[in-house]
Amino acid sequence: MAVRQWTEPQQNAINAGGGNIIVSAAAGSGKTAVLVERVVRLITDKTAPVDIDKLLVVTFTIPAAAEMKARISARLEQMLADDPSNHRIMRQLSLLPSAKICTIDAFCMNLVRENFYELNISQDFTVLENSEANVISDNALNTVLDEFYEENDADFLRLVEALSVPKDESGLISAVKNVYDYISAQPAPLIWLKNAVEAYRPGQKFQDSAWYPIAEEYVTDKLNYALALSDKCMSYIDAKDDCAAYYSEFLGIENNQCKLLIQALEKDWNELVDVLSTVSFKRFYTSKKDFDAPEYAGEIVVRRNLYKSIIQSLANEITIRAERFDEDNRAVYPVLSMLLRVVEKYSLEYAELKAERNAYTFSDIMHFALSLLMDFDEDGNIIQSAAAKELQAQYHEILVDEYQDTNSAQDTLFSLLSSGSNRFMVGDVKQSIYRFRLAMPYIFNQKKETYKDYNKDAPGGDAKIILDKNFRSRKDICSFTNFLFSHFMSEKAGELDYNEKEYLNCGATYPERTAPCISMKIIDHCKSADMDEFEALEIAKLISEKIKSHEKVFDGGKERDICYGDFAVLLRSTSRHIENYDRILTECGIPTVCETKSDLLECEEIKMLLSYLKVIDNPTRDIPLLAVLTSPMYGFTADELAEIKLESDNTKRSLYAKVVSSDSDKAKAFVNDIQMLSETAVTMSVSSFIRYICEFKSIFAFVNALGNGRQRSANINAFIFFAQGFDHSAGVGLTSFLRLVDSIAQTDDGLKAAELSTGGENAVKLMSIHHSKGLEFPVVILAGTSRQYNYRDLNNAVLFNEHLGISIKRHNEEKLCRTETLPHKVLKNVNKNAALSENLRVLYVAITRAKEQFIPFMSFENLQSRIEKNSVRIADGTIEPCVCRDINSDADFLLCSALLHKDGEELRSYSAVHIQTAQSEFDMDAEIAEFNQTPEMISVQAQEEANEDYIRLIDERVNYIYPGLKDLNIVSKLNASQLDGNENDTQYFALSKPAFMNEGGLTPGQKGTAMHTFMQFCDYAAARDDLSGEIERLQFLGFLTKIQADSLNMVQLRDFFSGSFAKRIFCAEKIYRELKISSFLEANRIFDTDSNEKVLVRGIADCVFEEQGSLVLVDYKTDRVKSEQELLDRYKNQIAFYREVIEKTLKKPVKSAVLYSFYMSKVCEY
Fold first, then answer.
1. Which of 522, 767, 856, 1086 could form a disulfide with 771 if both were Cys (CB 3.0 to 4.6 A apart)?
2. Minimal CA–CA distance to 805: which of 174, 195, 180?
């Protein structure tokens, strides 16, 4: 195998040492390969090797950890093949299974389990599902709030007023939970919250607070940009024009107004508020009686409108004077202090309930780990504990992948485990897209900004390495990415300056392509309600055309025809839209694999199963009962139900009471089922009972018949797995389980539906951008780009920021309303900027998934107005960060980039202002299509002429006769019962087993199983003396269910235990019961074949007893037969096998082999 050639930065990342190293790895830069190679170098170094179990490698997901182990293993095996006698490599391969290559959750779990005694918790704790945690959380919070309401504290009542509306405390509940969840990302949550509250302690001035510099910078940027626009307007005026005097005077007044605002802010915040309150704009006339509008009038008007809107929005926003800061703090501080008290008490109550359940969230487990590793010094700073110092010595190096997605608590944990100079962190802040999971990209940025550039000639100290080569995408994809983000991503609007140091530099080799790699599909006059369907149809047409034209993609070093599996359709949000795209593509004949985000409890098959469980638990509930009766399991029609209802004169009786009293055979069968299952439910765990129901009513067969059977079956298995978690926790019984499910259904989270693998299917992949991270596709289609960004979090009652703490609005008791405070306004702007930065990073991830083509779809109700709105922002070839913050969708960013590109002439023709294009190194296609109210469905099925060669080849293969056809039935393992063919007998096979056809609710086969179970576990002597008592004992111990016990034939059992043959057993010298036997037989002794291949045959002999030095073999049978000979013939091969193997195993002759027939109460001897 050829040796991989590393770039110089990659080689530096593999070899770097002497301090902490942070690697900023751009998309497609081979960071995983570098990480693997670094691990391999460390463990195979010739001068100072380190065992792999001395490394801690942390990945973001379980699949990533598995892939990392697999890659390291493959690399070591490759090296071992080149050097077979290398004992060092052999040792590392042997240590690899136990190496700590895992997620941070798995690491914390192991650490906590190993030190459970230090934490005063049980070692066998379980992990709470989010849905279960929410139920426990609700119980804890309700308890705490009830206690506070009883205290009737004035500050608590103010807190309720500040966060809730009258008669609805959901706002307070949501706020407390949000605070608890947010602070869990801090190493010392309650300390962080206390410090955040203390920031509001009265007595400080606004100008001296942490909020003022941020507010000042925000306003300064806006005013400076407004002044720049005003200056630009002034620069257009030509002194020779008749309009020059009017234009200069009018625009000059507004220009001075901008300057006065800037000077006011420099002087004092209150001065700014006062001047803004006097701002006004008069009507501007582009032409008058004494002059016509000049050619540049349009350029001035659009710029004036923009700076006018900026100043007017500031006038509406900046209205709070500086002295209100302390006044607001005096009102807010006690409210926030009370919020701190509530969160503290809620934390304790929630922890107690989880401890009682012996189940914790992953966040709890991480904080358990932190409590083991950290202490505090006299100043309250976090320091290493004794346990941390001990663990620190175990790890030569700590390697963290996807470091940009860590939070403060996780970073602290890594720091506590580190020696201070042995951390290796890899990530790309441009791909940090998990803010909603409390990722904190500033942690990565801080290290990247403070660490020096790595110098291989003078290594040592903390250093950074940039991997900027992209080995995934074509050059034009990289160039487009750089073009877009260099214009829009900055430190003030994107939390990162996207400059040449951040550029993607193409490192991949592709053959030349004539068509552009960037193709923008723009749909005009399309309303948002029609977007999904029309875009999906256009996408279907696009894919169909590329498939039919045999377009080429580069794969495995050569070109091939494009196929469906080369396309990925990405969306920001899949919850309400992906099903529409999937449906349209499927109707057009395009195969798809669709990511599901649905709630398990909302899936049709689970709702059917839940209704059945609810009826079994309590059949008097009419709604689930009606759902079950009309389900495919029973198939009652509306007419049949009406007849049942009319049979009873009492209209007030419940539906179930009427079903019970009905003479209908279907109703009687249903009632028998419910009664039998109600009795069975109390004898089983919930998960086992659900499995039993699925078998009893052939539910998997039903759901497969409904379509999409693979997904439905996976959902049922996921539901059973959830029930297993309930069984392993403190929950007991079906009623408790259904109560838990109902509680979960009332929460926002629900239960996540099963996820199916989207492996190598030749189908178009539909998924969210977040789910696509780490993947790559030849063609990426970005759909739904015109949907506005989601800023709903900015309206929450409590806002958070890792640096600025928290903020709330002030409740005005006189006006009974909530008013903005200066900190709340500032924090809202800061968080909006952070959210915009995340949205830009999500767009970056979407574009960089593409290997060869990136095709975004943009739908606008009015393309002309959208271009006019955006064109003034970018008219001069750049965009200011303060204006960039106002862009509200991916489509606007993409549209602006197209307007700036040399190939955007058609789009620029819609603009009222001249747009200065930017330099670019790639071609782009922008196609505008009109929305069609009645689009035609397409079919991708192409009619092709039959190929005679293919037909002949198919005919040969279909009619091919396999020479070893007789050997096809040979299996490697066989049950002894199959030697006579009994187990495969399909004479009486049926898809379902209607309960009304079986007396007592059990089939003959199930009754036979009950008899065998009794004979397997019963005490023979006790059964002889007190048969009923022995049956009750086995039922009490759980070996028999009540229905099985009731089905036992007492007469047949008494005949056996009181008979002469049983007396021989009681007098036997030795008895073997349930004797497991196995042996290899030649295949030609079992099958119609000449092969002498060995087949493993296994079985269990019911009873073998020793009599006068010889053995007697007994097998119990419950078959209904006409004669003794029929029974003997039915099992002759099985018994012959038992006889032969038992003689070999016990080394004594079998003098007699018998079948005892319970049906005939007779010993049948061979």
1. 767
2. 195
> From CA 215, how far away is CA 207, in angstroms rounded?
10
List the one residue out of 309, 224, 322 whose CA is nearest residue 273: 322
Bridging pattern class, strands 1070-1082 and 469-470: unpaired
Amino acid symbol at 706: L
The neighbouring-strand residues paired with 383 are: 375
Residue entry with tokens 């996540």: 752
Nearest to 469 by CA among 21, 953, 23, 943: 23
* Euclidean distance between CA atoms 914 and 232, whole angstroms: 13
Q: Which of 555-559, 647-651, 896-900 has the least mean pLDDT?
A: 647-651
- How many Å apart are CA 774 and CA 776, to the nearest integer? 7
CA dihedral for 750, 753, 759, 760, sign (positive or negative): negative
Instruction: Quote the pLDDT of residue 988.
Output: 39
Match 């193409």 to its residue by tokens: 506
Instruction: Tell whether the torsion through CA atoms of 804, 809, 813 and 814 is positive or negative.
Output: positive
Q: Which one-letter amino acid corresponds to residue 488?
A: F
Q: Residue 1025 has which token pair? A: 């003396």
With H, G, I as helix, E, B as strand and everything else as coil, classify residue 570. strand
Q: Residues 552-606: pLDDT tens digits? A: 999 988 999 999 999 999 999 877 788 889 889 988 989 988 776 567 887 888 8
Give, in degrees to the nearest 5, the angle at Cα 172 between 167 and 177: 145
Alpha-carbon span 919 to 905, nearest angstrom: 14
Tokens of 129: 């599902």
Start-to-end CA distance of the chain, whole Å, equals 66
Q: Is 194 exposed, middle or buried (0-12, 13-18, 19+ CB in 10 A)?
A: middle
Give yes or no for residue 993 having a pLDDT over 50. Answer: no
CB distance 916 to 901 below 8 Å? no
Find out whether 600 and 754 touch, Cβ atoms under 8 Å.
yes
Distance CA(900)–CA(699), nearest Å, equals: 59
Q: Give the three-state DSSP class for 470.
A: strand
Predicted confidence at residue 1079, as pLDDT, reads 87
- pTM for this structure? 0.75
Average pLDDT over residues 505-520: 92
Beta-carbon-side half-sphere exposure of residue 362 (alpha carbons within 13 Å): 11
Averaged pLDDT, 74-97: 92
DSSP-derived letter for residue 816 is T
pLDDT at 458: 84
Q: Are 656 and 620 in contact (CB under 8 A)?
A: yes
**C-alpha to C-alpha distance for 817 and 227, rounded to whole angstroms:** 36
CA distance 1131 to 1095: 19
Q: What is the 3-state secondary structure (H, E, C) of 883-929?
A: HHCCCCCHHHHHHHHHHHCCCCHHHHCCCCCCCCCCCCCCCEEEEEE
